[in-house]
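RECORD TYPE: inverse folding
INPUT: structure tokens
STRUCTURE:
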């Protein structure tokens, strides 16, 4: 028996840094990743798809988002089983019970809205642990597995949340206990655990039967999500489970940490940014450190301005950026200005070197603008 394991679609997600047409393109890519599961399922011969929670970003969605999401699910063409998670729990405002969702839900889509066993077909069952609030006070998985006995069926657990061996908050009441999963697997009550919540592809434990699929499209930077963009092709037979990750994501959120102290460093950064492919689907966050002259800082700004127009987004990670700008001796002596203007430049140089933090930054910015207007800071 073969199926697709996916999770954390979070349809309707927005990223605050995406502006212009980047946000609509990102949203479309998330829907395309969902609709594209149909082609993958046809390629590998999958019977059905399980979505292990957080199908939607939250429960308060626009009619357009709900309608477009359901159309993407319809395009998959085989049965799709949706588990409510912490982003879209089955509470009083649940999207799954809204008039629009219930009226337009495609026939191939089933909401796992009841804890316990759901039959896929004779001999194949899903054991579901849906969320009914954003903060469960118990281990929902332990509850559905507690009295589950082995039978002449193949069972797939579909659950959402952190596993205790991976979560730093070991006292969280909703944590899934790996020992509970391993025990259920060992006694044959379930044969595979399809988990959601972690957005990176993650194997849990040593059994090879407990996995997070991760989100099929990236949702955060690579220091948070190390390996997003996958769907799992899962084969379960009487004696073994085989899990094959398949990459489906097309966007990247990249963090770079360059040291920039000289014009050569800026040129190297320019080359590195230029070599990144698919810029319109790439978000770049820069944590810059170094000490620059005003001339070099102006050249850096010109470089960043250029690539900000090419990437889906490019900007500084302010918390991790530490750039010091110090005017070099003689840096402003050949601008061809004199009199009052020259005196003003000298005052700005002095402030940039010795003024308080706020005044120095303002003076550095003014000097950099002066150089760029004089065409000495062009990249």
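DESIGNED SEQUENCE:
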């Amino acid at each position: 028996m073969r199926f697709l394991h996916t999770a954390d679609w979070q349809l309707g997600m927005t990223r605050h840094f995406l502006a212009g047409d980047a946000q609509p393109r990102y949203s479309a890519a998330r829907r395309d990743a969902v609709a594209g599961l149909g082609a993958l399922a046809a390629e590998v011969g999958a019977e059905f798809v399980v979505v292990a929670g957080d199908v939607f970003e939250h429960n308060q969605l626009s009619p357009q988002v709900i309608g477009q999401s359901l159309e993407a699910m319809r395009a998959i063409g085989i049965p799709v089983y949706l588990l409510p998670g912490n982003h879209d729990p089955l509470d009083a405002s649940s999207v799954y019970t809204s008039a629009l969702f219930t009226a337009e839900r495609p026939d191939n889509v089933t909401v796992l809205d009841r804890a316990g066993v759901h039959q896929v077909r004779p001999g194949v069952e899903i054991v579901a642990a849906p969320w009914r609030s954003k903060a469960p006070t118990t281990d929902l998985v332990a509850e559905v597995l507690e009295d589950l006995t082995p039978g002449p069926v193949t069972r797939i657990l579909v659950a959402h949340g952190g596993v205790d061996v991976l979560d730093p908050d070991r006292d969280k009441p909703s944590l899934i206990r790996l020992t509970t999963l391993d025990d259920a697997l060992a006694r044959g009550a379930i044969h595979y655990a399809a988990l959601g919540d972690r957005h990176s592809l993650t194997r849990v434990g040593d059994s090879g039967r407990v996995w997070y699929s991760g989100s099929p499209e990236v949702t955060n930077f690579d220091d948070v999500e190390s390996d997003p963009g996958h769907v799992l092709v899962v084969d379960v037979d009487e004696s073994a489970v085989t899990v094959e990750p398949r990459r489906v994501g097309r966007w990247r959120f990249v963090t770079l940490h360059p040291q920039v102290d000289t014009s050569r460093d800026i040129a190297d950064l320019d080359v590195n940014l230029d070599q990144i492919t698919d810029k319109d689907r790439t978000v770049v966050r820069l944590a810059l450190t170094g000490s620059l002259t005003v001339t070099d800082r102006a050249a850096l700004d010109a470089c960043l301005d250029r690539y900000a127009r090419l990437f889906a987004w490019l900007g500084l990670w302010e918390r991790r950026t530490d750039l010091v700008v110090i005017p070099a001796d003689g840096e402003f002596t050949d601008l061809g200005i004199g009199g009052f203007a020259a005196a003003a430049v000298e005052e700005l140089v002095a402030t940039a070197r010795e003024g308080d933090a706020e005044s120095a930054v303002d003076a550095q910015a003014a000097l950099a603008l002066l150089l760029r207007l004089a065409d000495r800071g062009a990249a």
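NOTES: The mean pLDDT is 91.
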